[in-house]
Structures are given as C-alpha cells and as structure tokens.
Design brief:
With 360 residues, the chain is of the alpha+beta class. It has 13 helices and 9 strands. Among the domains are: 106 residues; 126 residues, Roll (Chitinase A, domain 3).
C-alpha cells in the first residue's frame, strides 16, 4: 500500500516539476502526465475485485483540489495527498470486502431495491427525465450499467454495515456509569440555566407606552394563569388547537417575536456567563415554573423590547449529574459510536483474513 502511495505521489511530483515551467495548473499538468506515463491499470484487488488507478484518481481528485487551494508548499501538499491516497485505497478495499462477504453469503440483491434507488435519483436530481440522467452519466464517463452496479454495491454496503451497527445499539446502565467515570473531564460544565422566554416588540402603529402596557398585561396573565383566557380574547389571539389550560409555551408560540417561538420559548440549557446579567438576576429569583414580570430593554436607535421568562432548571458549576436525561442520552450516543467503531474494526479485520487482498 505504501508503494502505491509513493508511486502515485511521484507521478504528481514529476508533473509538478514540469508545471513550474508551463502555464498549465499543477492539476492539469498532473492529469496530462498521468495519462502519458500510466494508462489505467489495476493497482489493488480485494476478494477478486480489482481497484484501478482511475478509481483512486476519481476519489482523490476533490481532496487534491482542496489541498492545493490551501496554498501549501509542494512538499506538504504531496505528503498530505499521499495520506489521502492511502486512506482512499483502504476505504475502497474495505468496501469491496464487504460486498464480497454479502455475495458469499446472502448471494444476490433483489433488483427491486436497485430499481427503486435509481428511480428516486432520476426523480430527485433530474426531475424525472431519464434522458438527462443518462446524459449526466455519459458526461461522467459512466454507463447506466456501471452506475447500476455502483448503486447496487452501495445498497449492499449500507445493509451490511447496518447489521454491524445494530449490535452496537444496546447500551447497559453499567456501560453508562463506566464511561462517565472514565471521561468525567468531558462532563465538567459551567453554571447553566434552562428557561423559556417570550419576546414582545411594539407593533408598527403601536406607541412605546401601549406596547409597555401590553407586555405588562401578558406578564401578569402568565403569572396568574386564570387570567390567560381573558387576555387571549382581549388581544384577539388565535386559540385554535389550544389546550383548555394554556401553558407559557403555548402563549410564547403564538405571540413571541423571537426565534424560540416555534419551540414554545424553550431556549435549552445555556451557560450563565452567556446570558445578560439582568436576565440572569431575574431568573435566579424565580421559583421553578414561575413567570417573571416584563423585563424592558432599550435598543440603541430603536424601540424598546420586552422579555418575559420562566425558570425551568439550574445546574451549578461542576460535574454533570449522571441522572440527568440529557447526560444519559449523550453518553449512550458516545458509547454506541465507540461500540460501532470497535465492531467495524473487528469485522473488517476478519474479512481481510477471510478474503484475499493484494496491493500491486
């Protein structure tokens, strides 16, 4: 594998040397030089399936362009490119091994799956025009048959990997606590507050005094929920699909003018240091579930804005609480990711022992 990377990089190096005295770009000269020196050939095989130089070249080309765009020296460029080449060859080899394992066991993928995926591509990417689809393949140097095989292989690969992923889904309580103890440094957090907010701004034809009075009325209603129905009627708020006992979130969704309105005003857990001190001071004095009075802020060069907030929780500075549902979900996802990575590594290692891999 290393020999391949070096040989490929050497070809690019030779092209780069030529490019120094030519007006063409490095990529253009490299492509021409590669074509002249080395017509397409098989440089590796996995389970009897060849991997050609052009296969690698197509995969590496986008990365090569990104690397060159960084403006690095040629030495750094070729070093990083060689790493990309090796990673690409490894990925393609593993891909072929997975396909071979499927064909050695299950055998053949029902045509309906491939047909469905291709029809989806034609509908989504080409507006249902099959002629445009075929023309696009031709422009990329592909045929409908070769693309069909590519799609079929992708479906098989995704299916096989999903089977391995399934084994990593189950995470027991013991794994959660073990992971937490080993990675406690990852769960140190600043003091955090969770709250909902409702933002009110003056209407186009509304005076500041009227807007302030409206904010005061809403704050009073949210602190005394029995007043909410009358307040909804007073300001002619649409009550369609509204519960008989509207919550702060229900009202925020209907009248708040900020980006949290669609979430019922829920801003999630936020670091105290990142929140306005005035707002933090108000929130900390509130009992859980209690709405605040209207908090007024003057905007430079604009009309005032009013916030009504309700406190939902407080996390002191320090380690996260292992009983916190959000922490549990976070750890479960991390453990699943680690389990999946380990399972994939073991599986691929077994496939490499089972199926022949040759680097030429």
């Amino acid at each position: 594998m290393k020999a391949f990377s070096i040989s490929f990089a050497l070809l690019l190096s030779a092209a780069a040397a030529s490019a120094q005295n030519a007006p063409a770009t490095l990529e253009e000269t490299a492509a021409k030089r590669l074509s002249e020196i080395n017509s397409d050939r098989i440089i590796a095989s996995a389970a009897g399936q060849g991997i050609t130089l052009s296969d690698i070249r197509r995969q590496v080309e986008p990365s090569a362009q990104q690397l060159r765009a960084k403006g690095q020296s040629d030495k750094t460029f070729f070093k990083e490119l060689a790493k990309v080449e090796e990673e690409t060859l490894n990925a393609m080899t593993e891909h072929q091994l997975v396909i071979a394992e499927f064909r050695a066991g299950t055998g053949k993928l029902p045509a309906i799956y491939t047909d469905g995926r291709i029809e989806e591509i034609i509908r989504r990417d080409f507006g249902g025009d099959r002629n445009r689809y075929v023309a696009s393949l031709r422009a990329a140097g592909l045929t409908p048959i070769s693309h069909r095989k590519f799609i079929e292989d992708e479906i098989i690969f995704d299916y096989m990997v999903s089977e391995v992923r399934r084994t990593a889904l189950v995470v027991g309580p013991g794994q959660i606590s073990e992971y937490f103890e080993k990675h406690k440094a990852d769960f140190v957090r600043n003091e955090q507050i969770r709250f909902r907010q409702l933002t009110l701004t003056p209407g186009v034809a509304e005076s500041t005094e009227d807007a302030r009075a409206r904010a005061t009325v809403w704050a009073d209603a949210l602190r005394h929920p029995e007043k909410i129905p009358a307040t909804l009627a007073r300001f002619k708020i649409n009550t369609t699909k509204l519960n008989s006992a509207p919550t702060f979130g229900d009202i925020a969704e209907r009248i708040s003018t900020d980006g949290y309105a669609t979430k019922g005003g829920d801003s999630g857990w936020r670091d105290v240091d990142a929140i306005n001190e005035k707002v933090v001071g108000v929130i900390k004095k509130l009992p859980i579930g209690q709405a605040s009075e209207a908090i007024e802020f003057d905007l430079p060069g604009g009309k005032p804005v009013w916030f009504i907030v309700v406190r939902e929780g407080l996390h002191p500075k320090g380690y996260a609480d292992l009983n916190d549902p959000d922490v549990i979900i976070d750890i479960e996802n991390r453990v699943r990711a680690e389990n999946f990575k380990a399972a994939m590594n073991t599986w691929i290692a077994d496939l490499r022992r089972k199926h022949l891999v040759e680097i030429r």
